[in-house]
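Protocol step 4 of 6: structure prediction from sequence.
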Amino acid sequence: MTDVDKEVDAQQTSFDPYGRLLKMLMPSVTAVVVHDGAGKLVWTSDDWQVSQLDPLVAEAVAAAHLEPGETGGISRELDADYSAYSFVVRGEGPDPLGIITLIARIANSRGGARTLSYVRSLVQPALECLTRELALRLSLGRREKDLGTRERDLSLMLEMSSQKPVGASDSDELSAILKAGLEHLNAALAAIWVPEKGLSVSMTRSGKPMSEEVLSRMEKHLMAWMLLQQRTIVVNRTAKTATESAAPYKILACPVRHPSERVMGVMVLFNPPSAADFDEHQQRIAELLAKKTTVVIQAQYDSSTGLMTRHAFERHASATFAACNGNEAHSILYLDIDRLHVINETFGMHVGDEVIVQVAEMLARELPPGALSSRISGDRFAALLPRTSLEAAGNIATAVCNAVASMAPSRGPRAFEVSVSIGVSPIVGSSNQLAHALATAEIACKAAKDRGRSNRIEVFQDSDQSIIRRHTDIIVVGGVREALDNNNFRLDAQPILPLRGNYGRPRFELLLRMIGEKGEVIPPGKFLSAAERYQLMPAIDRWVVKHACELLGQHNAALGPDAARFAINLSGQSLQDAEFLPFVIEQIKSSGVPPELLCFELTETATIGNLEKAQAFMARLQGLGCQFALDDFGTGVSSLAYLKALSVSYLKIDGSFVRDALNNARSESMIKAIAQLAKVMSMETIAEYVETDALRIRMADLGVDYGQGYCMGRPQPLRELLRELAAFEATVNTWVAPGAAEISAALAGVEPVNENGLRSALAG
């Protein structure tokens, strides 16, 4: 909202009580319009067509000037239903203060419009109040106009001085403010001190520097004085000799305020005793210079945390590097608050904001003198540690973690923990050393999150494989974008088969493969991490949906009502894309693929994280006939609590439980519980990573319906599968209960084989 908008809103608010009072005194009034003494619109109570009143108001203004002593008015019937009454209000001077116009309904049953004198008698108390209001406004307006005239030249000067040359730093802008104070206020010395930001800038008119000891002593006493007074201080009576608490100078000191209005610093001008006293006009100019100082500081520092903005951090870091010896070691910290979204969702965004501020304060407090700290974005921070070895930087990071761990925020009876993950990286000489160091420190921070969070610290090391992988993602993502542009992906299909008896449709999960430059097949584990980190999953999901629908649509003849279902994985990023659902529906309709053949798999984490959007997404596609499966079930923190809110047909039990089900009683119990729960809720279960006969048999014993893994069948290109679908359907239909000695022949020309032989045939 602009200052003009705020002024209009304030004006609207200030006149509202008078409008309500007029309507109380005369209930038939439907609108109130206020013009100033020159006929300029000041305020209206509603959306009345004010232009209809222009002739009436102009006549009233003219009459008021012709008869200076009168306070009459004019009335007119606007139409058959409404009449207007314009009253002139005057102050002490001869000119009218304003014109108050009332729009009232005509009560025809009472003989038409009421007379002007009668209406005045009804609303006279409100007119008197409005007279005082308009008189006060006129007086204030004249004073503001006078002040504006005095300060116009200064505003122009400030505008020119704020045009920062290319390459200039923020300290240059502060120096320009001090120079303006010296030249335009004829001061001998000017200084800006903001202790909490580490800012201390001073300038003398003669160009000769003052003693650092003297400046430090004056800063200490003036800051204490300013914090006590909280206002501009003018001292024109000076001490004859300097003392511990006084100096032989005339002083004009203005507070430098934080956006919250608290005093965070001081801008001060000094003059010798022989100079002229500081006057009121100079005080106003100095206050404007102090406000300009606040603007410059705001551009450098984040308003919430008080830390530097990223832009200012980069500039100050460059200046720091330039001032240091090229052989000196520097380090950088990259800090991320753990699970802040949980705090936001549980206690509210305002509590999350408080946590961000508290962590920023802890970070600033634990850093050594000379360090630079910045709020990079959201809940992420960075700190530059000049002349600090990697080992020393690790110790500082530990101190920050310990300080954060000591926090004990609470909301009512509910307390919660706050922790951070920190990445530490050396700053090595390069053409863009800060950007490189930030990137490597961020990678180390991500590794700390991967390895447990909770005040964990990781140091960037070239030998750390997980860190190298994240670093490699930056390169891999370029290949993903190229594959999207050139259609270098392929869809494979892996069977999902019944574990017990001959029942249920065969199912296939569609798996994505990327084709490399040399034609090699790249599995998703090599590129999906980078795609997710760089927000490419919606584009990949669109590619999968489009090509899956096209291929299935081309084989409609072979895909009868009892054919297999095909599962398509979707990411949480796609659920956030408002255009993704219409895209899916369009692909299904344009390809002609029966919606009943499609099942969309959503991971439990992505679904719970976007619950409302997931519910709407599922409901729309289920209305067409599609089904849904909840993938990686059991890994979420609130699996059972959210399951009742999700209309899914299948639960895919996470492979981490399946892998060790033969050796881990807890995993076995979890699988059995999920299978029983699914049956109660009319859902079916699928066990992932069924890689051995023993696991297949055990999953069947635990009540799981379907299995997926190399024991059940290997992935094969979807195009090939669709060509052989009829033969594959015949194979599936001959499956008998586990434990049988033989199975009927499945494919033409194949002799009866045992179960292992059938699995080999499927894998072939």
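Step 5 (inspection) to follow. Confidence is low (pLDDT under 50) at residues 732-764.
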